[in-house]
């Protein structure tokens, strides 16, 4: 029979391992950016720095939560019934990272299209996701002594959070693909560049949309 730690903590532990790997990739990209794009605007450099700091904080919170459950309370299975707020903070910080990047994408879409309705929708959905993530953190403080109550009160908010991820990613991908496709110049070199951008945008947004849908389905399934 599986132990309580195996049942409850295998998923978060594997998620932490995977998140640390992605954090390493992000750090490599930041180093590459600093070395090769020193002439970028200060606002863009600031945005990159903010995202890296948030990613670093998220990785630290994830490791601290795993230390609390699996090391500090190694011989105390009752700790698994408590909600560690550092673990839920990773969700809030992740939503902040998405918010910053989505605001940048919304700005780029506005510059491409010179129309505000799609960027406004993206901003509205992204802001809503931040609010839901913050609400989840508040629930973790209110019900920190009962995982059951926390799950009961957050299953809806987590579902809404993942729906907003899918909606914003699909909107961003569709808008970029439409305006980039419309802006083809007919020159072979430029069209190849546009094709690479389209493939990158489609691939990354499909991946995050798939993860969001899978997470939502898992949350709903585990709830029942």
Automatic annotation (TrEMBL):
Cross-referenced InterPro entries: DUF6534 (IPR045339)
Record-linked Pfam families: DUF6534
Keyword hit for Iron-sulfur? no
Q: Where is the DUF6534 domain?
A: 166-219
Alphabetized, the UniProt keywords read: Membrane, Transmembrane, Transmembrane helix
Task: Give the signal sequence positions.
Answer: none
> For this UniProt entry, which segments traverse the membrane?
12-34, 46-65, 85-105, 117-142, 154-176, 197-219
Q: Record keywords: Disulfide bond included? A: no
Task: Write down the PANTHER family for this protein, in alphabetical order.
Answer: CHROMOSOME 1, WHOLE GENOME SHOTGUN SEQUENCE, DUF6534 DOMAIN-CONTAINING PROTEIN
- Please identify the protein, giving its name as recorded: DUF6534 domain-containing protein
Q: Which organism is it from?
A: Serpula lacrymans var. lacrymans (strain S7.3)
Q: What is the lineage of its organism?
A: Eukaryota, Fungi, Dikarya, Basidiomycota, Agaricomycotina
